[in-house]
UniProtKB/TrEMBL annotation, chain A:
Residues 54-110 form the ChsH2 C-terminal OB-fold domain. Residues 14-48 form the ChsH2 rubredoxin-like zinc ribbon domain. PANTHER family: BLR3430 PROTEIN (PTHR34075:SF5). This is OB-fold domain-containing protein. Pfam families: OB_ChsH2_C (PF01796), zf-ChsH2 (PF12172). It comes from Alloalcanivorax xenomutans. Coiled coil: none annotated. It comes from the Bacteria.
Length: 129, 392
């Protein structure tokens, strides 16, 4: 049956647009799932539900994309492992790109710009060493 | 149990190869470069276009590419495979092509590719924008990774973190490729290059500089695959397909389970199993080096080094001319050239080595070659093991 709210990509974004970060969990195998899917990539089940992860994560891999200052300057792109055992791409916003290191503890935040939500991360207090 | 496809080992051979317009071919289209390479490869095989009744091809921009290729070449193939898994596609095409030849569906398969990406009037910026619309990656693109390079940079950061791999070791991959290119008159970049040159070149996506990245060139490439018995009656020494394997585990770099272990572990295992061979049996390795980290990952994942040890292996000079394992003997994507999807050129270089006509870059006595393609952002991996009659 078609979900009147749309597919999971639309549902995920709609939550972000309201300032909420929600991911899925498989009700059959228990795995947390990211990116949002219509079926569990671990076991194939279609019985999935949304939940709010703790938002705590660790930087798994990091790069600084170089960009001319007049175009906005260098910026961070990181892969982050959430404590729920999923990985995603995002950026660390409260640290200079060169300060972001693998292993750094980070916390999710949702920024909403003109009604459009985006998941970003902040280095946790005292962790930005 | 699906078996290891050992029954296909050595039953098919590459009978013709060609490249055309590699480097810069101003004013040419993708199709024109493909067509010239195809024409030359078919002639190299001692065949005519009328003999071609199977086609494998792929394009990074045209979604229905096999149809205009059929139309342009004027062929009537009974077998078509247009599997598009990025730069590894043209090595992956070997398996369906072999299956089609084995079943009798067709008798001569042309695998062909062309790209005018360097001199095309359509700029890469415009193509990049079109891709964002046509092939959105909503969980990565908002963070503006410079794809594909940032994905490989993330993998490099992880390899450095876990194994102590250094930027100097990555740079040595580019230097070794350049040393090979300096022996190959067909290579696009042949100026001397040092580790310090690489380290001091423009940083693009840390830790990768512009010299850690493949070139952007034009070029067409093609090869012709036939059954081995027919290949023995054709003019060129047959280059037999001994093993083949393809694996895709993910599309996005963020969906990769371990950034230091690629699906080449699976494609390589399958190719070795079919060939009944291992890394020690390989004389020449052509490993798709879109970025310097690729060569390290594939040296490890294809079994030439233990995981984490490729940096030191390369730094010791093992993959340079005169080293223990000749790698990317044409100069690779880093220095020979990189027309968008390099896999077919790795295969063609493997054939050139096994025919013994690689000129100054010839590896003496080479009887076996592993040719490995990568696609997307470490997303697809395809491996083939090729050999001369002596390797059968």
């Amino acid at each position: 049956m078609v979900n009147q709210e749309g597919g999971v990509q639309a549902i995920y974004q709609a939550a972000l647009d309201q300032g909420r970060f929600e991911i899925q969990r498989c009700n059959d195998c228990g795995d947390a799932i990211f990116f949002p899917r219509e079926l569990c990539p671990g076991c194939g089940s279609g019985d999935l539900s949304w939940f709010s992860p703790s938002g705590k994560g660790t930087v798994y891999a990091v790069t600084t994309v170089r960009r001319k200052p007049e175009a906005g300057g260098d910026y961070n792109v990181s892969l982050i492992d959430l404590e729920e055992n999923v990985r995603l791409m995002s950026r660390i916003e409260n640290a200079a790109p060169e300060e972001v290191k693998i292993g750094m503890a980070v916390k999710a935040r949702v920024t909403v710009n003109e009604g459009h939500g985006l998941l970003v991360f902040h280095a946790m207090e005292g962790a930005a060493q | 149990m699906s078996g290891d496809l050992n029954n296909l080992r050595g039953k098919f051979a590459i009978a013709g190869v060609a490249t055309f317009g590699c480097g810069e071919a101003p004013g040419y289209t993708d199709m024109e470069l493909l067509a010239q390479a195809a024409r030359l490869a078919v002639a190299d095989a001692g065949l005519t276009m009328k003999d071609i009744d199977g086609l494998c091809t792929a394009s990074a921009s045209s979604t229905m590419w096999s149809m205009p290729v059929v139309e342009y070449l004027g062929i009537r193939p009974r077998f078509i495979d247009a599997t598009m898994i990025g730069g590894s596609s043209f090595i992956a095409h070997l398996m369906p092509a072999m299956q089609a030849l084995e079943s009798g569906q067709c008798d001569a398969v042309l695998v062909a590719y062309g790209s005018a990406q360097r001199t095309s009037t359509l700029s890469r910026k415009e193509i990049g924008k079109a891709r964002l619309l046509m092939d959105p990656q909503p969980y990565e693109h908002p963070y503006q990774p410079m794809l594909p390079m940032s994905a490989y940079a993330l993998a490099a950061s992880r390899h450095m973190h876990e194994f102590g791999t250094t930027r100097r070791q990555l740079a040595q991959v580019a230097v070794s490729a350049r040393q090979w290119a300096r022996k190959n008159a067909d290579a696009f970049m042949r100026d001397p290059l040092t580790v310090d040159d690489v380290l001091n070149s423009r940083m693009v996506s840390d830790p990768l500089t512009v010299r850690d990245a493949c070139l952007v060139t034009d070029g067409g490439g093609a090869y012709v695959l036939v059954r081995a018995d027919r290949a023995r009656d054709l003019p060129q020494p047959p280059v037999y397909v001994l093993g083949q394997g393809t694996a895709v585990w993910n599309r996005q770099i963020s969906s990769m389970a371990d950034l230091t272990v690629t699906a080449a572990t699976q494609s390589g295992r399958d190719a070795y199993a079919m060939a009944g061979m291992g890394p020690k049996d390989i004389d020449v390795a052509e490993l798709y080096d879109a970025f310097t980290i690729n060569t390290l990952l594939f040296l490890e994942d294809l079994g030439f080094c233990a995981k984490g040890e490729a940096g030191a292996f390369v730094e010791e000079g093992n993959i340079s001319p005169g080293g223990s394992l000749p790698v990317n003997t044409n100069g690779g994507g880093l220095s020979w050239g990189h027309p968008g999807m390099y896999g077919i050129f790795a295969a063609i270089e493997g054939v050139r080595q096994l025919r013994g006509n690689a000129g100054d870059s010839q590896v003496a006595g080479a009887q076996t070659a592993i040719v490995h393609g990568n696609g997307g952002t470490l997303s697809s991996q395809s491996t083939a093991i090729l050999g001369t009659a002596a390797a059968l």
